[in-house]
Amino acid sequence: LFVLGIETSCDETAAAIIKNGTEIVSNVVASQIESHKRFGGVVPELASRHHVEQITIVIEEALQKANVTFQDIDAIAVTEGPGLVGALLVGVNAAKALAFAQQIPLVGVHHIAGHIYANRLERELKFPLLALVVSGGHTELVLMKDHAQFEVIGETRDDAAGEAYDKVARTLNLPYPGGPQIDRLAHEGVPNIDLPRAWLEEDSYDFSFSGLKSAVINTMHNAAQRGETIKPEDLAASFQASVVEVLVGKTVKAAKEYNVKEVLVAGGVAANKGLRTALEAAFEKLPEVELHIPPIHLCTDNAAMIAACGTVLFQQGKRSELNLNAYPGLDLERF
Ligand code: ATP
Ligand code: MG
Ligand code: FE
């Protein structure tokens, strides 16, 4: 069973071919980071234009590398949301055109469901599981009791973890995307600056990062006014310590409460070395729960994860019609 995955929700134009839901046959990602860098963030209109330029090339390359033709493809899985509407529309329209022309079934996939399913490209999922989703636009704890069943038990009330990383990086004059830059700096510094931890209510699995972000900015401004210097690496280390402590603390608590068999990490911030190390240390003390973090190239946006999730949906009988649209605010629990 071959599924072609297409992903264009943000600034990566991606296509991949997955065999039987788990085996990567080809995985092509055209990143636009260089184009957006000089603006310090993703420019939506620019992203759409790049997707239009790249989409055909990327899909053809995925087929070529996999050594298959459209005759071999059983389904086309495409990210229908959430994301930038103009960016999503390019992938959705390409998928619809191919599905119509080649008479191939079409399956719409939720981008975050895809991030979680990136884990199935490494090993079979064990339910119930808890997924810590940490990406550019999302920070969520998702409980899955079975395939394609997503229960959001906690989510950010303001900024996503990746967004906080990118904003703090910008304040420190680091290039976009800031996450990897802060991660690198953090390892050169000491977490000696007192920053808040947003635990929220005792029984809440929600997150909040905007207060922490403001605290970092205020710390810098106050120091500048007093003519003091703060080492950026110490600020990065202190910021990262706060983010990681809360993410790990809530994940461990939820894993225990819901008696899950495994904890999966998903999304771009899962590439963070500080987070990976802290999670590994925490779950070493909890041997009844397995911890799995995908390799970095499967944490950031790609189409292999969309095809992996799309395969499960296809096997469950989900089909999207040719009137499929792009849904910028698509809900994970109801897509
Ligand atoms: P979403 O998936 O929510 O729609 P997105 O697709 O833009 O958003 P991803 O591609 O999953 O997000 O992740 C990108 C984010 O990951 C960026 O905010 C980036 O700064 C962050 N990131 C990448 N590597 C690291 C790292 N090592 N440490 C911290 N953050 C990182
Ligand atoms: Mg991206
Ligand atoms: Fe993403």
Automatic annotation (TrEMBL):
**Do you know which SUPFAM superfamilies this protein is assigned to?**
Actin-like ATPase domain
* Any single Gene Ontology cellular-component annotation: cytoplasm
The keyword Iron is assigned to this record: yes
Q: What UniProt keywords are attached to this protein's entry?
A: Acyltransferase, Cytoplasm, Iron, Metal-binding, Transferase, tRNA processing
Q: Tell me what reaction this enzyme catalyses.
A: L-threonylcarbamoyladenylate + adenosine(37) in tRNA = N(6)-L-threonylcarbamoyladenosine(37) in tRNA + AMP + H(+)
The protein's matches in Pfam families, at most eight in alphabetical order, are given as: TsaD (PF00814)
Q: Which InterPro entries match?
A: ATPase_NBD, Gcp-like_dom, KAE1/TsaD, TsaD
Q: Where is the Gcp-like domain?
A: 23-307
Residues annotated to bind substrate:
V133, V134, S135, G136, G137, D166, G179, D183, N272
The cross-references to CDD domains, in alphabetical order and at most eight, read:
ASKHA_NBD_TsaD_bac
Cofactor(s) demanded: Fe(2+)
Record localization: Cytoplasm
What Enzyme Commission number(s) appear in the record? 2.3.1.234
Q: What is this protein's function?
A: Required for the formation of a threonylcarbamoyl group on adenosine at position 37 (t(6)A37) in tRNAs that read codons beginning with adenine. Is involved in the transfer of the threonylcarbamoyl moiety of threonylcarbamoyl-AMP (TC-AMP) to the N6 group of A37, together with TsaE and TsaB. TsaD likely plays a direct catalytic role in this reaction.
Looking up NCBIfam families in the UniProt record yields: gcp_kae1 (TIGR00329), T6A_TsaD_YgjD (TIGR03723)
PANTHER family in UniProt: TRNA N6-ADENOSINE THREONYLCARBAMOYLTRANSFERASE, TRNA N6-ADENOSINE THREONYLCARBAMOYLTRANSFERASE, MITOCHONDRIAL
Q: What is this protein called?
A: tRNA N6-adenosine threonylcarbamoyltransferase
Give the originating organism.
Heyndrickxia ginsengihumi
